[in-house]
Amino acid sequence: MKYDYLVVGSGLYGAVFAHEAKKKGKTCLVIDKRPHIGGNIYCENIEGINVHKYGAHIFHTSNKKVWDYINQFAEFNNYINSPVAIYKDELYNLPFNMNTFSKMWNIKTPQEAKDMIAKQVAETGITEPKNLEEQGLSLVGKDVFEKLVKGYTEKQWGRACKDLPAFIIKRLPVRFTFDNNYFNDRYQGIPIGGYTKIIEKMLDGIEVKTDTDYFEFIKENPDIAEKTLFTGMIDEYFGYKLGALEYRSVRFETEVLETDNYQGNAVVNYTEREVPYTRIIEHKHFEFGKQEKTVISKEYSSEWKVGMEPYYPVNNEQNNKLFEEYRKLAEQEKNVIFGGRLGNYKYYDMDKVIEAALEMVAEEL
Ligand SMILES: Cc1cc2nc3c(=O)[nH]c(=O)nc-3n(C[C@H](O)[C@H](O)[C@H](O)COP(=O)(O)OP(=O)(O)OC[C@H]3O[C@@H](n4cnc5c(N)ncnc54)[C@H](O)[C@@H]3O)c2cc1C
After folding, report:
1. What is the CA radius of gyration of the chain?
2. Burial of 295 per CB tally in 10 Å (0-12, 13-18, 19+)
3. Which amino acid residue places its CA nearest to atom 4 of ligand 1?
4. Which atom of ligand 1 is nearest to the CA of 214?
5. pLDDT tens for each residue of 231-244
6. Which of 113, 207, 229, 262 shows the smallest number of beta carbons within 10 Å?
7. Distance in angstroms between the alpha carbons of the first and the last residue of the chain
8. How far is the CA of 215 from the CAs of 31, 113, 220, 354, in angstroms?
9. Ligand 1 within 6 A of 195 CB?
10. Nearest Cα residue to 148 out of 161, 158, 159, 165
């Protein structure tokens, strides 16, 4: 055996593991089928701007340990995510807060906003929501739901809210303060210089092969390592033998524009169904960029099929049950550990990925 560990996937999970393993004197080979390291947090430099190639990534956490951990690898700026929503010719602040309500109803005080929501909720007369539309209406009332939730959700899921189950939206948080900070976490920011640098630092001194697919590689190198950490799709690992787990995918249309400031904000949501994309990201604003040009990405939510980039696991009952079956198979797999968002079939924010990887490190090493 040449290495202690073969790490499949150079995303955040694989990189944290390899970094910690090296510190403990273990040897690792990291492979990734993509032409670059970093997995979904990879940034590509276009016109001097760090473009979040697989979707906008904002680091936020309330876990001090994780925050201190990630700060070893980068300095974070003071970016605060404050998206805006465009509905037809109206523009609103997100998340739903007093700025949103005052614009929507021309009101000033929290009490007025609370009364208006309570009135609109009562008007729906819904007590037991049978679908997502009824659920949304019964949580925030007609105006907020129809202008800011309905069309966006329908685009995300490719189906009418009436045909979606109520459980998808458990809560629609509303804030009765003038606070546009999207996240409630204690720590937040964007790494200065982009995310790829973090992964480069984590993998410093560790052998990495990109453009290398595990399934091909292991055929030719069956004895490469004592153990494997697999952060790819768990169902693909088992040849989809119990069936494929479902995902939602996202398609990005990225353009360079000859203007220094296209939309004045990093994230603008388009909440009416008739606009085909869900959001436009203007990447330079994550790092307060002063470049002459700008780069924007339009995000289109899309159906997923085997072979496409899997973004969001569809954690409904059927898929969770299937994952449970795969997990049982995984437990029997000697010398293979499954981790990360694809290995665990779970939507993980970056801080949760670091937490999970460090827990696994503590167990394994
Ligand atoms: C659109 C979008 C937006 C997001 N925004 C945020 C955000 O704002 N804040 C936040 O905290 N989190 C965000 N996240 C979550 C974040 O992307 C993840 O937490 C993180 O990237 C997961 O890391 P990972 O290592 O588990 O997986 P990945 O980054 O997916 O890494 C897995 C790697 O394994 C490789 N791989 C897979 N199969 C094979 C194979 N057979 N052979 C070789 N290599 C293989 C892949 O190429 C990939 O590089 C977002 C996620 C998405 C999808």
Report:
1. 22
2. buried
3. 57
4. 42
5. 999 999 999 999 99
6. 207
7. 18
8. 11, 56, 9, 26
9. no
10. 161
DSSP state of 288: T
Written as one letter, the residue type at 286 is F
Residue 51 three-state SS: strand
**Cα–Cα distance, 40 to 62 (Å, whole number):** 22
Q: What is the DSSP string of 74-94?
A: --B-------EEEETTEEEES
Tell me the best of 314, 350, 355, 361 to mutate to test the pocket of ligand 1, counting ligand atoms within 8 Å of each CB and taking the most.
350
State the distance from the centre of ligand 1 to the C-alpha of 41, rounded, in angstroms.
7
Sheet holding 312-313, edge to edge: 90-93, 84-87, 267-270, 279-282, 294-303, 247-257, 312-313
Per-residue pLDDT, 315: 86
Element (H, E) at 113: helix 110-124
pLDDT, one tens digit per residue, over 244-301 is 999 999 999 999 999 999 999 999 999 999 999 999 999 999 999 999 999 999 999 9
Say what angle helices 110-124 and 98-105 make with each other, to 10 degrees.
Answer: 70
Q: Assess whether the C-beta atom of 311 lies below 6 angstroms from ligand 1.
A: yes
